[in-house]
Amino acid sequence: MQAALERWHYLIDKRAQQMDEAYARLGRSSADFWNRRARSFHQATKDNALSDPFFLKVRQAVTAQSSVLDVGAGTGRFALALAPLAKQVVAVEPNSAMLSYLRQEAEQKCISNLSYIATTWQEAATDVQADIVVCSHVLYPLREVDTFLAKLDRAARQACYIYLHARHFDELTGHLWRHFHGSERCLSPSYIHALDVMYEMGIYANVEVVSKPPSWRYHNYEVAVEELIEQLILPDNERTRTELRRMLEAWLWEKDGMLVPPVSEMSSAIVYWQR
């Protein structure tokens, strides 16, 4: 029987190879992916934290005396939402473009108890700790996930909360990938694979599967094409844009003045444990 970590490595390596090959055909790499996507990611996530099941779960553990560590904070969706509830929030985020949006939002909201560590979690100091550690949608590309999880566990004085997909957006767009690339999309590991690795590590976590509307919403087809050209690693030319738009017009739904994927809900998992 394949060990959980071996299975994780297999999924990571297979996806990485597929993506590297797709980028190589374009003469590019994934190195600046989040620099290119920071703005759209911020727009898609900045206003939905307070109703998100992950925030609703974590806030039950946070008090006015709590310190919170948000690992892979991105543009600050949860760090900003948790700051008014906590004594202190520390956001760990290596991408300068993402961190810039986080800082701007904190300044606009006059949040003074939020500090920043501008590095990866792997490179962060080993003595960084907080009462509550949160980590939202970060694990997917990490090959050495066991080392990453062990460091999260050591950093949490009271509890650790990890948010992971049960169903990937890449699964929804699989037909688009297949059309343009001629192969099935290799998916990242999901919560069940992380849970299996944790079990092998001796971390016996709780799991709560939750559902919420998809966060991928587009103002118009031009925006949708722009986003999916990037996500599907496609050549940015008029022929591809025209063909992609035609397919999106047949696929996306209109809801509340926005274009959305044809699903009402997406499932994720809150994986958490007490120290």
TrEMBL record:
Record bears the keyword Transferase: yes
What InterPro entries does this protein map onto? Methyltransf_11, SAM-dependent_MTases_sf
Q: What is this protein called?
A: Class I SAM-dependent methyltransferase
One GO biological process this protein is involved in is: methylation
**Domain called Methyltransferase type: residue spans:** 69-161
Q: Does the keyword Kinase apply?
A: no
Could you tell me the keywords of this UniProt record?
Answer: Methyltransferase, Transferase
Which terms does the record give in the GO molecular function aspect? S-adenosylmethionine-dependent methyltransferase activity
